[in-house]
Design brief:
single chain; mainly alpha; two-stranded antiparallel ribbon; 13 helices
Length: 259
């Protein structure tokens, strides 16, 4: 976890003056004030933006903030919304927040309006922006797969991204697509095998390790994808045998990765 994120999460309870029980409000809580503030604001976009950010933080902490969804959509329709403006911002934090918003609360009928801006972020120099863009596209794929069919080549580019965080984010999309149509992704079998070799070989940054186990959740995703690609296909399965054997050999059966 980055220092910025850690400090932000540490400061959130004091910033919002939230109750000790997520989902419950007291009449004097700042979340209650937030509801009243959003209700009263109708045309002051900057203030509304600040309230939207606080509403997102409330959701992150487990508090019910569905009252803010309609106001976020109204801002988007007015063309000066948080997401549209901030996706084109030079401020890293604003772009990250905008990508988080579009990935969480955008309805499928509004995806075409924002999709080109999200696609652009796949080429951003900062890996965190590329990763969040991939995750936003993953959300788009879940709710409206037909609207992202034309950018499958960009998914492949994300799979080969030099940053392992971006690559791992793309696996969410590929697991869904391979589950629906495994025969359409047989040509990527070697790519998934190569990635798994790097993972079990400890080539990823140590941040991906969990109790000395190299990227266990990433390994699980890759194994699921390979199982789908190799099902009832001997020639494809043969490509995987070596890495699967290596994965089993390196696994310490007596090593408990849980707390």
């Amino acid at each position: 976890m980055s220092d910025v994120v850690e400090k932000t999460l540490t400061a959130l309870p004091a910033l919002l003056s939230l109750d000790s029980h997520p989902g419950k409000l007291s009449s004097g809580s700042k979340l209650g004030n937030l509801i009243r503030g959003i209700t009263e604001l109708t045309s002051k976009h900057r203030q509304m933006k600040e309230l939207m950010v606080r509403a997102i933080y409330c959701e992150m902490l487990g508090y019910e903030a569905s009252f803010s969804y309609i106001h976020a959509i109204k801002l988007a329709q007015q063309g000066t919304a948080l997401d549209k403006r901030d996706l084109q911002s030079t401020n890293l934090i604003e772009v990250c927040m905008a990508l988080t918003v579009v990935g969480q609360i955008f309805p499928k009928d509004m995806i075409p309006a924002i999709l080109p801006l999200v696609e652009e972020k796949l080429n951003h120099p900062k890996e965190i922006i590329r990763r969040k863009a991939v995750l936003a596209l993953y959300k788009f794929y879940l709710i409206a797969p037909n609207q992202v069919q034309h950018i499958h080549n960009k998914f492949r580019k994300a799979l080969c991204d030099k940053d392992p965080g971006v690559m791992s984010a793309s696996l969410h999309i590929y697991l869904e697509m391979v589950t629906e149509k495994p025969e359409g992704y047989k040509d990527l079998t070697l790519s998934f095998v190569t990635i798994l070799k790097q993972v079990v070989g400890g080539k990823l940054p140590i941040d991906f390790n969990y109790h000395s186990v190299p990227a266990p959740w990433l390994q699980i995703q890759l194994l699921r994808i390979l199982s789908l690609l190799g099902k009832n296909d001997r020639s494809t399965s043969e490509i995987m045998y070596e890495v699967l054997d290596e994965s089993l050999r390196r696994a310490e059966m007596n090593h408990n990765i849980t707390y």
